[in-house]
Design goal:
heterotrimer; A mainly alpha (about 325); B alpha/beta (about 325); C alpha/beta (about 525); A: mainly alpha; ABC transporter involved in vitamin B12 uptake, BtuC; two-stranded antiparallel ribbon; 15 helices; 4 strands; about 0% strand; C: about 525 residues; Rossmann fold; six-stranded mixed sheet
């Protein structure tokens, strides 16, 4: 990786470009490989298909990146999505207007975030523990909300799930807006910079006059609202809530995407661009596995190996000349 | 149909508040004064299937009459063991067990045999059935074969491409898929086979990718209805109504989708009927014990949009 | 080993550092016991430098079996380096170490330990959740057929404690012991592991008198058993009462080595301070005393008792104590970092509640930590962002990077922060530049009326230190009330107008710097009877 550092110095490339060179290289290599092995991979319809599939993950990952910048962590986002999907489906099924149902979904997410944030800040419970516990509660709550059966959302959200604007799916547009919002928050707003300061040194941030507790709670609430949005997006794609949708396994994918992108688990350092690369990597690998029809027993091996390679490559970057 | 959904929603809302009380360990039903026998029923979960199974057992118990002692293992193999032990302590005359998974079955059977209480298995059996009194099993391999035979007939000798969206890798999914493939005619080619993990959302994602890699596919075999709906959503979102979905289930929603032609074929069976059969067989066995276990198969019905009325009622 | 008289004969006791005095034996070479003349430890010509800065310039040091040898020196005199070399943590550039007459050929902690050199640092290395006995036998737990033999552990632990005359329950978890008893356990463990040369790094620092007395008793016991104890301390009374020999380091050289009985507190102090102290203090203008910052009755049980201090506009007042003493409570109290203090703060007649951080910042109070990366700066963020973090105009909802850069530019040039790259993360700076960035972050705003500076030149080089001193004087000249919390006598003599000396959690003296000499300040600080 010395060569990369040298190149950066000699070519004067902005760090934003070279920072993710390793991860981007892994992504490009995988795309090249898939293009050679499968003629459909590099077609527009398939790429749009992949992007639509990762939209939900991208929305969650973008919010989580800002939260992790501040040293927070939320393992319950996927489970919040599960509950929102179930409740909104229930509301739609009982004839509630789609707008009201959606607002309820977002507010529900905000409530979950508020609970997480208050437990983490007021009771000083580690975020990992807090949100793992709420995740378990919410996974159960989702089953209760749908009584263990599929709940059809009817056609109210179909337009959102399948519609396009100039050939771009609505879901993808929403994801891009959220990602852009997260990136702008981190780069251009006091709120985002304060999040980084809190993650980098919470004591110094507090002594410098940043209201650390309030800020942290707000971040959890914002993440809950994004989980609400993601739930509505997911429901619009699935058309129904069913047991096993979203939940902890979605969450693990989201956390993996953020961490592989280079955002520090301990806060203070976050990159939305890296998160986007991480999300794309996971989405493309899942798509590629289906296209190449890799045997089911080898699928998790393949995903795991890709994750490992990406994580190692990304880590090598930090081993610059010291 | 819409009406019944609203009803279900309303019921669910009230049930959610009362169910906590009702789900306490071992609520009794049946008239215990006149009951000829007490049967312990250990259920595995509270999904649709399990609730309908329980309804069948309770209804049949009323007519005999038999007292039923309930317990639910909530997907936990350890809790299943404890539930079976509880039943033994309560000295029930027989145990009906819907197991959480095959692995926990052996211990449960051994405990019942040691206590000399006849045990009856529903839908899932183990490799060694020597100790059980009887069982009513779903033959998933047979379901796969039936599905393939219908496809052979439906395609009428033409060359067709077939995709399989399997469950999570493991015994159940392998039996489904193995039976299906073994009975598939020479004109049908399996062009795609990927796991949908028995989850609706995952099956939908796989089906979306299938549309990219093999857009010309003619038939899709999906071994359960949940995943079938996932695939259906993917195809409908893509405006593809020409791909024929073959699946397995029998719920109201599934039958409705079949009657509308959205599922081309459904192998339907009824957990309610299974419950009825379990209690009646068990009572027979208590009155006339046999040396060999009495093992039956859950009856299945091949349903297409032309014969939806032939399907057994899923929940009585 | 029985020739050493038992511990006893208590004399005066004036402080926690005061040990029980006892009759002293003559030099071991002359004792009738026939002890071999070969010293337990001999270090010859030890040299060590760090990137040009000489830490040790040819140190000779001899420690004998059965004796306690005190090692003294001001901060930076080379004590820690010497201890690190002895314990194998750091390799010497040149010099010879002999243990029991044979030269130590290998370096490193294992070799040192194998040679019988054991070190007890101030930072404890016990496992809090394990019992006293387990900690004593840590790493060498007796086993029976592969299984930990609990009864054996209890019995061995109890025996060890009894042998050393320690009244501790071997079953009690170490966590439940007080700090003094924990130190006892640690010393006992190192001794038991075969430490024939035992280095104790300020074992009584921040301990009360009773605990200190217990440790002194253990040290005497170990010496009576034939161990050679190297005892590092800042407390003069303790050194004089406890040790047989004393060595003073200054600027990496041995300036005094003698039998303790043949020297005096005054000799030791002047050896530590040196005769060449020139007061490079520039003249400071006389100002009318206008009180700005007032702290009344600052207390925290066990750490600081009833400290009161007033700082006027443009005045620099230093609160000085030895490392670990109560003056270190000023920052956590005044910054609002920690609660649980008694005491009031007044800033220009306005009552300040320190834990309401935003409000006290708005009132113009700034507290600059001595732990710049731990509680002062955000290491991952850039220099520009760090130094503008408290500027009101940089704290609008939307970032204006151009504005921020120009604000940062002013702050950087005023505080002399220089960087090679245009705007690196603050963690990439040298210690001196980090320290200047820290001061810039907290003090570059216009609304500052009073500030607390904790150890403002800790860990920076001489040049940066001089620059920071100028910055601090400029701050005071601009009318800011400067409160300085420090352990550095040079710095205090150089900067302060008034000095409050804290010893063992109490303010023992308040002097104008004009009425104070370097020696006198050191005397006050070290507690040597004058």
């Amino acid at each position: 990786m010395n060569s990369i550092s040298l190149n950066r110095a000699t070519l004067g490339l902005p760090p934003a470009l070279t920072r993710h060179a390793g991860l981007a290289a892994v992504l490009v290599l995988i795309c090249l490989y898939l293009s050679v092995r499968s003629e459909v991979f590099a077609t527009t319809p398939n790429l749009v298909n992949v992007l639509r599939q990762v939209a939900v993950m991208a929305v969650l990952a973008a919010g989580l990146t800002v939260l992790m910048a501040a040293g927070g962590l939320d393992f319950s986002l996927g489970s919040q999505v599960a509950v929102v999907v179930a409740v909104v489906a229930r509301l739609l099924e009982s004839g509630t207007h789609v707008v009201i149902a959606s607002i309820c979904g977002v507010l529900l997410g905000a409530t979950f975030g508020l609970v997480n944030g208050l437990v983490v800040t007021v009771f000083k419970v580690a975020p990992f523990v807090t949100t793992l516990a709420t995740a378990t509660v919410l996974d159960g709550a989702a089953l209760i909300a749908m009584k263990g059966q599929s709940v059809s959302a009817g056609g109210a959200l179909t337009d959102l799930g399948t519609g396009e604007l100039l050939g771009i799916p609505y879901l993808l547009l929403i994801a891009v807006l959220v990602i852009g919002g997260a990136a702008a928050t981190l780069r251009w707003t006091r709120f985002g910079r304060d999040a980084l300061a809190i993650g980098g040194n919470a004591v110094a941030a507090r002594l410098g006059g940043i209201p650390v507790l309030r800020h942290t709670v707000m971040l959890y609430v914002a993440n809950g609202m994004l989980a609400g949005l993601a739930g509505i997006m997911l429901l619009s794609r699935l058309g129904a809530a069913s047991p096993g949708t979203a939940g902890l396994h979605l969450e693990l994918t989201v956390v993996a995407a953020v961490v592989i992108g280079g955002t520090a688990l301990h806060g203070g350092n976050a990159t939305v661009a890296g998160t986007v690369l991480g999300v794309l990597l996971l989405g493309i690998v899942a798509n590629g596995i289906n296209l190449l029809q890799i045997d089911s027993f080898y699928q998790s091996v393949a995903v795991g190996v890709v994750l490992l390679v990406a994580a190692v490559v990304n880590q090598l970057r930090h081993r610059g000349p010291h | 149909m819409m009406k019944s959904r609203i009803l279900t929603a309303a019921l669910a809302a009230t049930a959610a508040t009362t169910s906590l009380a009702a789900c306490g360990s071992g609520s009794d039903s049946g008239d215990s004064d006149d009951a000829a026998y007490a049967i312990g029923f250990v259920n595995a979960d509270s999904l649709d299937f399990h609730q309908c199974l329980e309804a069948g057992i309770d209804d049949q118990a009323q007519t005999v009459p038999v007292e039923v002692v309930h317990a639910n293992s909530a997907r936990d193999p350890a809790k299943e063991q404890a539930n079976v032990e509880d039943m033994i302590v309560r000295q029930v005359d027989a145990i009906v067990l819907q197991t959480v998974n095959i692995d926990s079955l052996e211990g449960a059977i051994a405990k019942a045999v040691a206590a000399d209480i006849p045990i009856f298995l529903t839908s899932v059996g183990g490799p060694d059935m020597a100790g059980v009194a009887g069982a009513e099993l779903s033959d998933v391999q047979h379901t796969g074969e039936v599905s393939a035979e219908w496809l052979n007939e439906d395609s009428a000798g033409q060359d067709v491409d077939v995709a399989i969206i399997a469950g999570a890798p493991g015994a159940a999914s392998d039996l489904f898929v193995g039976g299906f493939k073994s009975a598939l005619g020479p004109h049908a080619t399996v062009v795609f086979e990927q796991p949908g993990m028995f989850q609706r959302a995952k099956a939908q994602e796989v089906a979306e990718n299938l549309l990219q890699s093999n857009p010309d596919v003619d038939y899709v075999f999906v071994p359960n209805e949940e995943m079938g709906f996932g695939a259906l959503t993917a195809f409908e979102n893509a405006g593809r109504s020409d791909i024929k979905i073959i699946t397995n289930g029998g719920t109201e929603d599934g039958l409705e989708a079949t009657s509308e032609g959205r599922f081309a074929m459904l192998v339907a069976s009824s957990p309610y009927e299974l419950g009825v059969k379990a209690v009646s067989t068990m009572v027979d066995l208590l009155e006339n014990p046999t040396d060999e276990p009495v093992i039956g198969q859950i009856p299945t019905t091949v349903v297409t949009k032309d014969n939806v009325d032939d399907a057994p009622s899923y929940c009585g | 080993m029985a020739e050493r008289p038992p511990v006893g004969l208590a004399m005066t006791a004036t402080g926690p550092g005061e040990p029980t005095a006892r009759p002293r034996p003559a030099h071991p070479d002359a004792t009738s016991s026939g002890r071999p003349a070969t010293p337990a430890l001999r270090m010859l010509g030890i040299v060590k430098s760090y990137g040009g800065a000489t830490a040790l310039a040819g140190v000779d040091f001899v420690a004998r079996a059965g004796r306690v040898h005190a090692l003294l020196g001001m901060n930076g005199a080379g004590k820690s380096t010497l201890v690190q070399i002895l314990s194998g943590a750091v390799a010497a550039d040149a010099g010879v170490i002999e243990v029991g007459g044979s030269r130590l050929t290998h370096q490193g902690p294992r070799a040192a330990r194998a040679a019988g050199i054991a070190t007890v640092y101030q930072r404890r290395s016990l496992v809090p959740a394990l019992s006293v006995a387990e900690n004593l036998l840590l790493g060498r737990l007796p086993r029976a057929r592969g299984i930990v033999a609990w009864r054996e552990i209890r019995e061995q632990g109890a025996t060890m404690l009894t042998d050393l005359g320690l009244d501790l329950d071997p079953q009690m978890p170490v966590r439940a012991l007080g700090p003094g008893s924990q130190t006892l356990v640690e010393i006992a463990r190192e001794s038991h592991r075969g430490g024939r040369i035992l280095i104790l790094d300020e074992p009584t620092a921040s301990l009360g008198g009773h605990d200190a007395a217990l440790i002194h008793r253990l040290v005497r016991q170990l010496a009576a058993n034939g161990t050679s104890v190297v005892y590092i301390s800042h407390h003069l009374d303790e050194v004089i009462g406890l040790s047989d020999d004393v060595t003073v380091l200054r600027d990496g050289r041995v300036v005094l080595t003698a039998e303790t009985a043949s020297t005096s507190a005054a000799d030791i102090v002047s050896a530590m301070v040196g005769t060449t102290v020139v007061n490079d203090r520039p003249p400071r203008p006389e100002r009318p005393h206008v009180p700005v910052l007032r702290i009344d009755g600052l207390s925290r049980p066990g750490r600081i008792a009833d400290l009161s201090v007033t700082v006027g506009a443009g005045e620099i007042v230093a609160v000085i104590g030895q490392a670990g003493d109560g003056h270190e409570e000023l920052f956590p109290f005044l910054s609002g970092m920690r609660r649980g203090y008694d005491g009031t703060v007044t800033l220009r007649d306005e009552r300040i509640r320190p834990h309401q951080v935003t409000r006290s910042l708005r009132s113009g109070l700034r507290c600059v930590t001595g732990d710049r990366l731990g509680t002062g700066l955000v290491p991952q963020l850039s220099v520009d962002e760090n130094v503008t973090a408290l500027h009101p105009t940089a704290r609008r909802p939307l970032m204006r990077w151009g504005h921020l850069r120009s604000l940062a530019g002013e702050a950087r040039s005023r505080f002399g922060v220089t960087t090679l790259q245009p705007n690196p993360p603050v963690s990439a700076l040298s210690g001196g530049n980090q320290q200047k960035a820290l001061l810039a972050k907290w003090l570059s705003g216009s609304s500052v009326s009073a500030c607390l500076l904790e150890d403002p030149t800790g860990g920076v080089d001489i040049q940066a230190k001089a620059e920071i001193h100028t910055i601090i004087e400029d701050l005071a000249d601009s009318g800011i009330a400067v409160l300085l919390a420090s352990s550095d006598t040079d710095e205090v003599m150089r900067l302060a107008d008034r000095v409050v000396v804290v010893r063992d959690g109490r303010a023992i003296a308040e002097r104008s710097v004009d009425d104070l000499t370097h020696d006198a300040l050191t005397h006050l600080l070290l507690g040597g009877s004058q």
